[in-house]
Amino acid sequence: MGKQATEMLKGVLEGIVLAILSGRPAYGYEITAWLRDQGFSEIAEGTIYALLVRIEQRGFVDVEKVPSEKGPPRKVYSLNAQGREYLAEFWRTWSFLTERLEQLRDGGN
Asked: What is the pLDDT of residues 61-92, one digit of tens each?
């Protein structure tokens, strides 16, 4: 992934993580591993953990501590109603932007 793609990804990573959590609860490493499997190999685990802290502080997720086989309990994040509303707004904004970008790419105004 090039520098331009990395910069674009930073702007939408919060929405991507919320979308992942809309499918099922997950902990930080699971999210990072899924993103890497999808080709986002340059995403640092620390980036995801910092983002999870921010979305927790903003009230978009509920957190449950689940015992881990390896070390301390894991924080499992699940999207709550406020997070679902925010994600819906993210998708509306995404649709608006992608439609406009497609128009520009196709030479339209």
From this structure: 999 999 988 888 999 999 999 999 999 999 99
Which residue in 29, 35, 21, 23 sits closest to 77, CA to CA? 21
Q: 28-37 vs 45-57: helix axis angle to the nearest 10? A: 130
H helix runs in the chain, sequence order: 3-23, 28-37, 45-57, 81-105
Q: What interhelical angle do 3-23 and 28-37 show, nearest 10?
A: 120
Written as one letter, the residue type at 61 is V
User: In Å, what is the CA distance from 50 to each residue of 13, 24, 47, 92?
Assistant: 11, 20, 5, 25
Q: Is the pTM of this model over 0.85?
A: yes
Cα–Cα distance measured from residue 69 to residue 78, given in angstroms and rounded to the nearest whole number: 20
Whole-angstrom Cα distance, residue 46 to residue 53? 11
